[in-house]
Design brief:
Length: about 220
């Protein structure tokens, strides 16, 4: 793992986290309801941020794992790293953040996150970090107009009807991943755990904004 072992992960303020996210996340946007932010430090510099908070659609999401209490799950809703960090840094930072959540917020049983297979990637880091793939669906919620992008819920709260007001629905996929801090809760999943090969079967593979299959990536690494 090399220098990745030297990374220090600790809680940082929303102000510091949001500034980093706006600069380094592909969307250049933060999630306003993020409440917990971890900074990833190497050589005394901040080189990565992970932001957690309640799911926007909390009522719908809680049903994914039967028996989950209202405050027993959280969403990893923003994650950004710069190019300074060495290989394997992302998975190590996620692993440390999960341990910190388990220690300091023991009520949290599981973490949900989404990979944007419409613009960014299909969740390589999540798969390397022990997340379970529990959903692949065609994008129906991301819209764009005049280079501004918004999700369904954002448009709803702003009382915007995208179809009537000239917004374009972006084509692609959204992949849903869950990490079980409490391993016993995995048996309560109400959705089947999907094989990672299902990503290629549905044509949902993407890496750094480009369509590519998992098989093609494997061959590229071997070559």
């Amino acid at each position: 793992m090399g220098r990745a072992k030297e990374i220090i992960v600790k809680v940082i303020t929303s102000k510091v986290a949001n500034a980093f996210i706006k600069k380094h996340h592909y969307s250049n946007k933060v999630v306003p309801n993020s409440t917990l932010h971890f900074g990833c430090f190497l050589d005394k510099g901040l080189h990565g941020v992970m932001s957690f908070g309640p799911s926007i659609n909390k009522k719908g999401t809680i049903n994914l794992v039967e028996g989950t209490g209202w405050n027993e799950f959280i969403e990893l809703n923003r994650m950004a790293f710069d190019d300074y960090l060495p290989k394997y840094s992302e998975s190590r930072c996620i692993a440390i953040s999960m341990k910190l959540i388990k220690k300091n917020a023991p009520q949290i049983k599981w973490v949900i996150s989404f990979a944007d297979g419409t613009q960014c990637g299909d969740g390589t880091i999540y798969r390397a970090s022990g997340f379970k793939l529990v959903g692949i669906k065609n994008n129906t919620s991301l819209w764009e107009k005049n280079r501004i992008q918004m999700q369904d819920m954002q448009l709803y709260h702003k009382m915007i009807n995208p179809r009537k007001e000239g917004w374009k629905q972006l084509k692609g996929f959204q992949l849903r991943y869950i990490y079980f801090i409490d391993k016993k809760m995995e048996s309560n999943l109400t959705q089947p755990i999907l094989s990672f090969s299902e990503i290629d079967k549905q044509g949902a593979g993407m890496y750094k904004g480009k369509r590519i299959t998992l098989k093609e990536r494997t061959y590229a690494c071997i070559a």
